[in-house]
């Protein structure tokens, strides 16, 4: 009877413990959970460290580059003044020659024969003149003695005058043929460097055949053809800069000639610019790039490293203040020519804008950034 009571209605000492333990654990969990929610704060996105430059207004040159041809101002194209066969070439391309130095020899045999014939004719005429002079002297003496008529004296005087005139004519012809004979020896007109020699010994040349050229070291002229649309902006003494393939300036000059007419084929206007070539870095007939400087103006520039290109459009990130923090915003740009390591900005950036120049590959529009020292 006693066992049955304890199990039903008796006061078992283990019952309160079994009931209170789960309640305490539940209360503890609620209390702990409440404290963790109340004390937590949302995690903010970390700011991306970037380097920032402030856009400045700088002097910008308005320039355009064109392909130009360099031509020597002291280059002589050597062409023969007579026809014939080349018998000797005395120089090689690249040789330095002085005035009067022999370059080539054209076969003078035929011309020499002509000169000899003319000289023989002159010698015969000299003999005729001497005879006519003797006849005139004899008849003059007889006429003075009254032995011959005056008509005979006049005939002797006429024969003497004719012989003298013929001798002068032959002298002129011989001199002309001797001068012509000198043309068979082709010589350098001035000090310079021998250019290409397209002919060979044995070739027959005419007065239109180019034998070679002699280029005098020194100044060159850049021949630049400007589209007619910009011809109205051309002015004498306008700056022109000669640049290499990397865009680096190698010579400064200015416009020295503006053609008064337009090339009908290319619709361009020729300008010339003299270039000092003291170190002989440039060559005659060399193609080069000429940068025409139309003027200067103030404007912003952006470093090349800060520019990205997407679908043919250029962009840059600007750091802008937003609610007390810096936020990156992507801006579309319209760019001009390069100036050193910068792009000239035509539209999209103004002086004072903060340009992000590092870490742009990690940025998205609206990302929070922090300046990096």
Morphology: rod-shaped
Radius of gyration: 50 Å
Give the helix/strand class. alpha+beta
Average pLDDT, all residues: 85
* Spatial order of strands in the largest sheet: 3-12-15-14-13-16
Biggest pleated-sheet summary: 6 strands, antiparallel, barrel
CATH homologous superfamily assignment of the largest domain:
Efflux pump adaptor protein, beta barrel domain
Q: What percentage of the residues does DSSP assign to strands (E)?
A: 35-45%
What's the total count of β strands? 22
Share in helix: 25-40%
Please write the string of helix (H) and strand (E) elements.
Answer: HHEEEEEEEHHEEEEEEEEEEEEEEE
Secondary structure tally, helices: 4
The poorly predicted ranges are: 1-42
Spatial separation of the terminal alpha carbons: 90 Å
CATH topology of the largest domain, by name, is Elongation Factor Tu (Ef-tu), domain 3
**CATH class label of the largest domain:** Mainly Beta
CATH architecture of the largest domain: Beta Barrel
Count of the domains: 4
Structural topology:
Blueprint: H1 2-8, H2 15-39, E1 48-50, E2 52-54, E3 57-72, E4 75-78, E5 84-89, E6 96-97, E7 102-106, H3 109-145, H4 150-182, E8 185-187, E9 192-194, E10 204-205, E11 212-215, E12 220-227, E13 239-243, E14 249-258, E15 268-275, E16 287-303, E17 308-310, E18 313-322, E19 325-339, E20 342-347, E21 354-356, E22 368-371
Parallel strand pairs: 1-22
Antiparallel strand pairs: 2-21, 3-12, 3-16, 4-11, 5-7, 5-10, 6-9, 7-8, 9-11, 12-15, 13-14, 13-16, 14-15, 16-20, 17-18, 18-19, 19-20, 19-22
